[in-house]
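Example 142, ligand adenosine monophosphate.
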Amino acid sequence: MQECQFCEIASRSKESEILYETESAISFLDHRPVSKGHTLIVSKKHFENLFDVDQDTLCEVMKMAKLISIKINTLYNPTGINLIQNSGEQAGQTVFHFHVHVIPRYDDDYNKRLGIEAQKRVRSTNLDLKLTANELRLALRN
Ligand code: AMP
Ligand code: ZN
């Protein structure tokens, strides 16, 4: 099989800002965030998309999406949160390993109604990502 970036992140052979994990799911910051706190929730096992992920893993990913959303809400007080799941190239999927986006929305956010593939990304250095990840990891401990 061709190398899969998210399998590599899940096995920690590729670097990322991991926030939280359970037996079957893991979350880390999107490296090109649409907004501060933009997080990906990913199955640990390789499933291509919504159609082949099993029900238990799907539940685990969605439970983690809710947990991360609650923590982001408390920490950054966004005005809303989108959960986005792209399945298939035509839907904007670019990484073919099942994942859900948690995207906090803020008042000055003009991307709200666009599909994820058309979204303007915020400038985010590795240091910005590290600071955001540290804040969220700390919040997830409480
Ligand atoms: P999608 O278009 O739904 O397939 O989204 C894939 C997302 O993965 C995009 O928002 C990318 O910015 C993000 N992404 C790709 N590679 C990495 C990586 N190595 N670390 C963190 N995020 C990534
Ligand atoms: Zn994979």
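Summary: The mean pLDDT is 91.
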